[in-house]
Amino acid sequence: MDETGEGEEYLFKIVVIGDSAVGKSNLLSRFARDEFDQNSKATIGVEFQTQVVQVDGKEVKAQVWDTAGQERFRAVTSAYYRGAFGALLVYDITRRPTFESIRRWLDELNTHCDTTVARMLVGNKCDLEDIRDVSVEEGKTLAEEEGLFFIETSALDATNVNTAFEIVIRDIYNNIS
Ligand code: GDP
Ligand code: MG
């Protein structure tokens, strides 16, 4: 960083974790490319995508990592978590077991990263209100207990997706600047 404030550059690694098929890859493609893929397969070989956002007039590069299907085999490696500044812990509001897995994902995150990592609990697929299986209240309560931000999103209709990432990015930014 230089004193004029020009040429400053921030690069924040953010990891997206949670059970299989909760919508992690689609949250990422919605954020990075404003795309949704109905039949999304694991994007093999793609480790992360980068998106530039402005925070207080500064350019911040969010390097968002996708598990690319490793979570199916409970084989998310320590390399995945290494150097992360932020994490999205994602469940599917229509499938309670994915919500019940969140504590396990949190334990795994805590094993690999220190507690300064900005954490956001994300209840995805909020467009599927009619088959909701986890209430907003339950999400809020868990987030309060564990000291997480909380938001419900839809990667399908884009509700709150940018906001989810932006809150995490801003929190990281505030913590380091
Ligand atoms: P991942 O395994 O966690 O990466 O999940 P994917 O992003 O591959 O999504 C799994 C499935 O859920 C796909 O069929 C997606 O089309 C679907 N999906 C993802 N996000 C949403 C959402 O917000 N709403 C709805 N209705 N479906 C979604
Ligand atoms: Mg995926």
Properties at a glance:
GTPase activity; alpha/beta; 177 residues; prenylation; binds magnesium ion; 6 helices; binds guanosine-5'-diphosphate; lipoprotein; nucleotide-binding; GTP binding
Summarize, please.
By secondary structure, the chain is an alpha/beta fold.
Q: Spans of 5+ residues with little confidence (pLDDT < 50)? A: none
How much of the sequence lies in strands comes to 15-25%
Percent helix among the residues? 25-40%
**Unique ligands:** guanosine-5'-diphosphate, magnesium ion
- Largest beta-sheet characterization: 6 strands, mixed
Major sheet: arrangement of strands:
2-3-1-4-5-6
Number of strands: 6
- H/E series: EHEEHEHHEHEH
Let me know the average pLDDT.
91
GO molecular function, one term: GTPase activity
Keywords: GTP-binding, Lipoprotein, Membrane, Nucleotide-binding, Prenylation
GO cellular component, one term: endomembrane system
Main location: membrane
Write the layout of secondary structure elements.
Blueprint: E1 10-17, H1 24-33, E2 48-55, E3 58-65, H2 78-81, E4 86-92, H3 96-100, H4 102-112, E5 118-124, H5 136-146, E6 149-152, H6 161-176
Parallel strand pairs: 1-3, 1-4, 4-5, 5-6
Antiparallel strand pairs: 2-3
Bound molecules: guanosine-5'-diphosphate and magnesium ion.
Magnesium ion (MG) is lined by residues 24-25, 42, 66, 69.
